[in-house]
Amino acid sequence: MPAFFLPRAEDPDQAERLFEALAEFAACEPAPRGDRVASITFEADGVVWTATVGEELRGTRTTRQMRRGELLEHTVELTSATRVLAVYPGRPCTVVTDAAPITGAASEWANPFTAEPTGVVLFDQ
After folding, report:
1. Lowest mean pLDDT segment, chosen from 31-40, 59-68, 79-88
2. Nearest to 94, CA basis, from 53, 123, 59
3. Sequence-ordered list of residues with C-beta below 8 angstroms from that of 81, at least 6 positions apart, any chain
4. Nearest to 40 by CA among 24, 58, 28, 23
5. Residue 1's pLDDT is what?
6. Residue 7 CA: distances (Å) to CA of 11, 44, 68, 111
7. Is residue 14 over pLDDT 90?
């Protein structure tokens, strides 16, 4: 588990202020230490995505097909240029990215967006 950080924060105090500001932007509560999410895994449109703070969204799509009595699997790795700025816990979790309206960057993802996690990794306290 990594120590708590946020991209673009230069020190721990700035990270705390940014974490609270991004929670306000996302209309959710900032999580207390010990409950802060470093990464979630979730499924969307048949793709298993991972949203890790500080990284681009990454996904894996696996298709299965029977061919001549044999099961064939084909896995495709997907990435999005959208970088995760913060993840707030809950059911569903709320993910804030560096896409519009925070920056002018276009994204196929809404900002913020919610996702029902299948896996959660917390930051170290």
Report:
1. 59-68
2. 53
3. 56, 105, 107
4. 58
5. 64
6. 10, 25, 50, 16
7. yes
From the number of C-beta atoms within 10 Å of its C-beta (0-12, 13-18, 19+), residue 66 rates as exposed
- The CA-based diameter of the chain, rounded to the nearest angstrom, is 61
Amino acid at 94: T
Q: CA-CA distance, 85 to 26, in Å (whole number)? A: 11
Q: pLDDT > 70: what percent of the chain?
A: 98
pLDDT band at 71 (very low <50, low <70, confident <90, very high): confident
SS3 55: coil
Burial tier of 21 (Cβ tally within 10 Å: 0-12, 13-18, 19+): middle
Burial class (CB in 10 A: 0-12, 13-18, 19+), 37: buried
